[in-house]
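Internal tracking record. Fields below are filled automatically when a chain is submitted to the structure queue. Please do not edit lines marked as system-generated. If the sequence contains nonstandard residues, flag them in the REMARKS field before resubmitting.
Queue: standard
Priority: normal
Entity type: single polypeptide chain
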Amino acid sequence: MGKIWMPGGGGGADLDVVTAGKPDVLAGKVIVDKDGEPLNGTMVNRGAVSQALGVNGTYTIPEGYHNGSGKVTQSIATMGGQTINPSASQQTVSSSGKYMTGNVVVNAVSNLSAANIKKGVNVGGTTGTFEGYVPTANDLYVRGTSRISNWVYIQSDKFHFETGMIYAYGTGGSPTIGAPVNLTGYNYINAEVWSNFGDTFSLVVYEGDLYSNALVRTSGTTADATNKIISLNVSAISAIRTFGLGIPLYRTCYIYRIWLS
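SYSTEM-GENERATED OUTPUT FOLLOWS
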């Protein structure tokens, strides 16, 4: 058993109790082993280690001596909860790399039901079933809804009020549909029409009935199987007068809307 001589003492220290080895002693420090021989430490002095972590990052603590002042920190931007109102355009919630401290709530679209969406149109995963149209104050006729009760005709058998349109087929003569309306304060009378060929529709305002003199008239030619809007200037007329919408001969025709503007 090794002994350390202690001058003036009654014996030596028992070195058999020494259990520390080089890795247990700080580098640069010296102790003695159980045989009394010098032992140079090899433990690395790390001092105060500081380390920043990214999102979900990890840090392996190195072997060695740490003085207790080191820190592992994490600096992540935070983002509070918010409410998003839906819109026609795509919206981005800028949350990349941020820690959410609240919920992101996307408000529901009010009145989003099949009955309120045009038939066949998909809005937010809901496919519409609505086939009706609500006329404005200026609409005389719009897709199945009429504000006129006293329609007048040339060849009335050529015009049929059907779901969403007035169907007509010209077979000779001058098929015309119209009605007396008060044109005071309006600039135009308009019609949205369709024909299965590129054909000419006419809009006329008459002095009296459909067989009287024309005060103003215009015409418009549809492209093949496409909708066309025809407009007639009536700004100079401030009275109740009969308008007439004439259809082309020998053609299938649809009248979708007639209105004042």
